[in-house]
Structures are given as C-alpha cells and as structure tokens.
Amino acid sequence: MHLREVTDDNREAVRALRVRRDQKQFVASVSKSLKQAARHPEANPWYRAVYVGDEPVGFVMLSWKPPAGPYKGRHFIWRLLVDKRHQRRGIGRETLTQIAALVRADGATELLTSYDPGEGEPWPFYEKFGFEPTGEIDDGEVVLRLVFPSR
Ligand SMILES: CC(C)(COP(=O)(O)OP(=O)(O)OC[C@H]1O[C@@H](n2cnc3c(N)ncnc32)[C@H](O)[C@@H]1OP(=O)(O)O)[C@@H](O)C(=O)NCCC(=O)NCCS
C-alpha cells in the first residue's frame, strides 16, 4: 500500500471511490473534498490517493499545519475513506500508519481528527489505532487525538 498524488492522470479514478450507502453520513465524497480543498487554501489542505499496487482504493486529506483557526499549527485528518470493495483488509490502518509517520517526520507530537457520532461510526477504528477523545466537540463532531511518544 502506498500514497500517491492526485493528478490529471488518476483524478477520475480517485473521484470514483465510494463508501457504502450507510457510511455516507460519516464522510464527504472525494469530489466534494477536492472542491473544499480548492476553496479553502487557508486550511492548508494536503491530500493523497491510497493505492494497492496500481489500483486506487482510498483517499486521505489533512489540514496540514494551517496558519490559523482551531487547528493552527497542528495536523488534522480532515477526510479518510476506503472504497467499500476494499474495506476491512487493513488498508485504513496502514493509511493511518503512513500518515502518522509523515506528520511525525514533520515534527508533530500528535495527530488530530474528528468524527460524527452515529450507528456505524468510525470510532472503534480510531480507538484500535490509539486515538483518544480530547473532550472537545467541534461542530457536532467528536475530536480525537493520537499522541506520539516523545523520541
Ligand atoms: C473507517 C475506514 C476508513 C476504515 O478503513 P478499513 O480499511 O475498512 O479499516 P481496517 O481494515 O484497516 O480496520 C482496522 C481495524 O478497525 C476495525 N474497523 C474498521 N472500521 C470499523 C468500523 N466502522 N467499526 C468497527 N470497527 C472497525 C477493523 O475491524 C480492524 O480491527 P481488527 O484488526 O481488530 O479486525 C473505512 O471503513 C471507511 O472508509 N469508512 C467510511 C468513511 C469513514 O467513516 N471515514 C472516517 C471519517 S472520520
């Protein structure tokens, strides 16, 4: 599994990734995410397609050390999805592992995300990885943090 930039060559294939119908309440589509990224440069969006071999199977987008706002100077997973045909095979976990390594290499001491609570929510997925609630609720979403051990 590896991360690849989204370019003219693979954008359509990445935009075609889909979660299950009952998961749509938890995550916006790739198309919407790319539009949001273009509309919000101040959030410092950083995104990659998740590949297994030559096949796109997922998408991840961070707000990478935005210069202002509630996540100023921090690393926040803004979007994460694995296509419905490829879920529960460890791809989401491996994506978190690679993202954690990248942000740590950038000097991060923690990685943040948030989720919308509801039936089928991704909390068990994040909890297994070591995320914990910060106690904050941001626009109805539960804010989570993964703290990196000091080196
Ligand atoms: C959440 C998501 C990214 C997980 O990706 P994935 O590739 O299916 O996850 P993995 O196979 O790496 O799972 C890792 C562990 O989390 C568990 N897990 C994954 N999704 C879970 C869920 N929704 N509920 C409970 N456990 C879950 C897996 O069973 C596995 O645990 P195990 O090793 O003990 O069996 C994927 O299901 C998805 O795209 N969901 C819809 C969008 C979404 O909710 N994104 C998060 C937005 S905040």
From TrEMBL:
An annotated Gene Ontology molecular function: acyltransferase activity, transferring groups other than amino-acyl groups
Superkingdom, natural source: Bacteria
UniProt cross-references to InterPro entries, sorted A to Z: Acyl_CoA_acyltransferase, Bact_Acetyltransf, GNAT_dom, Sper_AcTfrase_N
Key words of the record: Acyltransferase, Transferase
Residues in N-acetyltransferase domain copies: 1-149
PANTHER family noted in UniProt: AMINOALKYLPHOSPHONATE N-ACETYLTRANSFERASE-RELATED, AMINOALKYLPHOSPHONATE N-ACETYLTRANSFERASE-RELATED-RELATED
Protein's name according to its UniProt entry: GNAT family N-acetyltransferase
Organism: Streptomyces argyrophylli
High-level lineage: Bacteria, Bacillati, Actinomycetota, Actinomycetes, Kitasatosporales
